[in-house]
# Entry
Amino acid sequence: MPGPDRTGATDSLILASASPRRLDLLRQIGIVPDRVLPADLDETPLKRELPGPHAKRLAQAKAEAIRAGAPDVFILAADTVVGCGRRILPKAESDAELRQCLELLSGRRHRVYGGVCLITPDGTMRLRLVQSVVVFKRLTAEEIDAYVASGEGRGKAGGYAIQGRAAALIRAIEGSYSNIVGLPLFETSQLLRGAGYRW
# Structure
Protein backbone atom coordinates (compact mmCIF):
# COMPACT_ATOMS: atom_id res chain seq x y z
CA MET A 1 0.00 0.00 0.00
CA PRO A 2 1.50 3.37 -0.96
CA GLY A 3 2.21 5.90 1.74
CA PRO A 4 0.68 9.36 2.01
CA ASP A 5 1.47 12.01 -0.57
CA ARG A 6 3.61 14.60 1.15
CA THR A 7 4.56 16.85 -1.74
CA GLY A 8 6.46 19.72 -0.19
CA ALA A 9 6.36 18.18 3.29
CA THR A 10 8.99 16.25 5.21
CA ASP A 11 7.08 15.44 8.39
CA SER A 12 6.05 11.92 9.27
CA LEU A 13 3.06 10.69 11.26
CA ILE A 14 3.09 8.36 14.25
CA LEU A 15 -0.12 6.73 15.43
CA ALA A 16 0.14 6.29 19.20
CA SER A 17 -2.34 3.44 19.48
CA ALA A 18 -2.44 -0.32 19.85
CA SER A 19 -5.90 -0.48 18.28
CA PRO A 20 -6.06 -2.16 14.86
CA ARG A 21 -9.45 -0.51 14.40
CA ARG A 22 -7.94 2.97 14.51
CA LEU A 23 -5.33 2.03 11.96
CA ASP A 24 -8.02 0.58 9.69
CA LEU A 25 -10.15 3.70 10.08
CA LEU A 26 -7.25 5.98 9.10
CA ARG A 27 -6.52 3.82 6.07
CA GLN A 28 -10.18 4.10 5.11
CA ILE A 29 -9.64 7.82 4.42
CA GLY A 30 -6.23 7.35 2.82
CA ILE A 31 -3.99 8.08 5.80
CA VAL A 32 -1.18 5.58 6.37
CA PRO A 33 0.95 6.40 9.44
CA ASP A 34 4.69 6.01 9.04
CA ARG A 35 4.88 4.23 12.38
CA VAL A 36 2.51 2.78 14.98
CA LEU A 37 3.86 3.15 18.51
CA PRO A 38 1.39 2.24 21.27
CA ALA A 39 1.79 4.12 24.53
CA ASP A 40 1.90 1.95 27.64
CA LEU A 41 -0.24 3.79 30.19
CA ASP A 42 -2.28 3.12 33.27
CA GLU A 43 -5.81 3.80 31.99
CA THR A 44 -7.50 3.59 35.39
CA PRO A 45 -9.95 6.47 35.81
CA LEU A 46 -9.10 9.06 38.43
CA LYS A 47 -11.35 9.41 41.45
CA ARG A 48 -14.67 11.01 40.38
CA GLU A 49 -13.37 11.42 36.81
CA LEU A 50 -16.18 11.72 34.26
CA PRO A 51 -16.18 9.83 30.94
CA GLY A 52 -15.47 12.83 28.67
CA PRO A 53 -12.53 14.25 30.64
CA HIS A 54 -11.18 10.69 31.01
CA ALA A 55 -11.10 10.24 27.22
CA LYS A 56 -9.37 13.60 26.69
CA ARG A 57 -6.82 12.97 29.44
CA LEU A 58 -5.82 9.58 28.10
CA ALA A 59 -5.55 10.79 24.49
CA GLN A 60 -3.26 13.61 25.63
CA ALA A 61 -1.20 11.32 27.87
CA LYS A 62 -0.68 8.82 25.03
CA ALA A 63 0.50 11.53 22.65
CA GLU A 64 2.83 13.07 25.22
CA ALA A 65 4.31 9.67 26.12
CA ILE A 66 5.32 9.04 22.50
CA ARG A 67 6.41 12.65 21.92
CA ALA A 68 9.10 12.26 24.59
CA GLY A 69 10.97 9.82 22.35
CA ALA A 70 9.92 11.09 18.93
CA PRO A 71 10.19 14.87 18.56
CA ASP A 72 9.75 16.75 15.28
CA VAL A 73 6.96 14.55 13.87
CA PHE A 74 3.17 14.52 13.91
CA ILE A 75 1.84 12.33 16.71
CA LEU A 76 -1.80 11.27 16.71
CA ALA A 77 -3.38 9.60 19.73
CA ALA A 78 -6.94 8.76 20.67
CA ASP A 79 -9.00 7.11 23.35
CA THR A 80 -12.56 5.84 23.30
CA VAL A 81 -14.66 5.78 26.47
CA VAL A 82 -18.19 4.46 26.88
CA GLY A 83 -20.13 6.36 29.51
CA CYS A 84 -23.52 5.56 30.99
CA GLY A 85 -24.45 8.66 32.92
CA ARG A 86 -21.43 9.56 35.05
CA ARG A 87 -20.18 5.98 35.00
CA ILE A 88 -17.20 4.86 32.90
CA LEU A 89 -17.71 1.37 31.51
CA PRO A 90 -14.68 -0.93 31.37
CA LYS A 91 -12.99 -2.55 28.42
CA ALA A 92 -14.62 -5.86 29.20
CA GLU A 93 -12.05 -8.62 29.67
CA SER A 94 -14.24 -11.39 31.10
CA ASP A 95 -17.64 -12.91 30.43
CA ALA A 96 -18.85 -11.45 33.72
CA GLU A 97 -17.79 -7.92 32.74
CA LEU A 98 -19.33 -8.36 29.28
CA ARG A 99 -22.61 -9.45 30.79
CA GLN A 100 -22.65 -6.57 33.28
CA CYS A 101 -22.05 -4.04 30.48
CA LEU A 102 -24.80 -5.45 28.27
CA GLU A 103 -27.29 -5.64 31.13
CA LEU A 104 -26.56 -2.01 31.98
CA LEU A 105 -26.85 -0.81 28.36
CA SER A 106 -29.98 -2.83 27.56
CA GLY A 107 -32.85 -0.55 26.56
CA ARG A 108 -30.87 2.61 27.37
CA ARG A 109 -29.13 5.50 25.70
CA HIS A 110 -25.46 5.97 26.43
CA ARG A 111 -22.62 8.12 25.13
CA VAL A 112 -19.36 7.22 23.45
CA TYR A 113 -16.62 9.79 23.99
CA GLY A 114 -13.70 10.01 21.60
CA GLY A 115 -10.68 11.97 22.76
CA VAL A 116 -8.26 12.89 19.97
CA CYS A 117 -4.87 14.54 20.49
CA LEU A 118 -2.47 15.74 17.82
CA ILE A 119 1.01 17.04 18.57
CA THR A 120 2.65 18.80 15.63
CA PRO A 121 6.38 18.77 14.80
CA ASP A 122 6.81 22.17 16.50
CA GLY A 123 5.24 20.83 19.69
CA THR A 124 1.82 22.45 19.36
CA MET A 125 -0.93 20.34 20.88
CA ARG A 126 -4.47 20.17 19.52
CA LEU A 127 -7.12 18.30 21.49
CA ARG A 128 -10.72 17.42 20.62
CA LEU A 129 -13.55 15.57 22.34
CA VAL A 130 -16.30 14.03 20.20
CA GLN A 131 -19.54 12.60 21.57
CA SER A 132 -21.85 10.07 19.96
CA VAL A 133 -25.08 8.66 21.36
CA VAL A 134 -25.97 4.96 21.07
CA VAL A 135 -29.36 3.45 21.87
CA PHE A 136 -29.56 -0.29 22.56
CA LYS A 137 -32.75 -2.25 22.15
CA ARG A 138 -34.04 -4.01 25.25
CA LEU A 139 -31.95 -7.18 25.23
CA THR A 140 -33.32 -10.59 26.06
CA ALA A 141 -31.37 -13.02 28.20
CA GLU A 142 -30.81 -15.14 25.08
CA GLU A 143 -29.38 -12.19 23.15
CA ILE A 144 -27.01 -11.36 25.97
CA ASP A 145 -25.93 -15.00 26.27
CA ALA A 146 -25.28 -15.24 22.52
CA TYR A 147 -23.26 -12.03 22.37
CA VAL A 148 -21.17 -12.98 25.39
CA ALA A 149 -20.54 -16.42 23.88
CA SER A 150 -19.36 -14.85 20.61
CA GLY A 151 -16.43 -13.24 22.44
CA GLU A 152 -16.67 -10.21 20.17
CA GLY A 153 -17.02 -7.73 23.01
CA ARG A 154 -13.84 -8.73 24.82
CA GLY A 155 -11.38 -5.88 25.12
CA LYS A 156 -13.91 -3.40 23.74
CA ALA A 157 -14.97 -0.29 25.63
CA GLY A 158 -18.43 -0.94 27.00
CA GLY A 159 -18.24 -4.60 26.00
CA TYR A 160 -19.45 -4.31 22.40
CA ALA A 161 -18.29 -3.62 18.84
CA ILE A 162 -20.80 -1.68 16.77
CA GLN A 163 -19.08 -2.75 13.54
CA GLY A 164 -19.77 -6.41 14.33
CA ARG A 165 -22.64 -8.50 15.68
CA ALA A 166 -23.71 -5.77 18.08
CA ALA A 167 -25.06 -3.81 15.10
CA ALA A 168 -28.17 -6.02 15.32
CA LEU A 169 -28.71 -4.92 18.94
CA ILE A 170 -28.45 -1.16 18.39
CA ARG A 171 -31.66 0.70 17.64
CA ALA A 172 -30.22 4.13 16.84
CA ILE A 173 -27.14 6.32 16.92
CA GLU A 174 -26.63 10.07 16.92
CA GLY A 175 -23.37 11.64 15.82
CA SER A 176 -20.20 10.12 14.42
CA TYR A 177 -20.33 6.40 13.64
CA SER A 178 -16.55 6.17 13.25
CA ASN A 179 -16.18 7.68 16.73
CA ILE A 180 -18.13 4.72 18.12
CA VAL A 181 -15.85 2.32 16.25
CA GLY A 182 -12.75 3.99 17.66
CA LEU A 183 -11.76 7.24 15.90
CA PRO A 184 -13.89 10.21 14.75
CA LEU A 185 -12.64 10.51 11.18
CA PHE A 186 -14.08 13.90 10.27
CA GLU A 187 -12.63 15.63 13.32
CA THR A 188 -9.32 13.78 13.01
CA SER A 189 -8.90 14.71 9.36
CA GLN A 190 -9.73 18.33 10.15
CA LEU A 191 -7.14 18.37 12.94
CA LEU A 192 -4.47 16.99 10.62
CA ARG A 193 -5.27 19.34 7.73
CA GLY A 194 -5.45 22.34 10.04
CA ALA A 195 -2.01 21.47 11.39
CA GLY A 196 -0.49 21.25 7.90
CA TYR A 197 -0.31 17.48 7.49
CA ARG A 198 -1.12 16.39 3.95
CA TRP A 199 -1.86 12.97 2.55
User: Anything to note?
Assistant: Strands lie at 13-16, 35-36, 74-84, 87-88, 109-119, 125-136, 170-174.
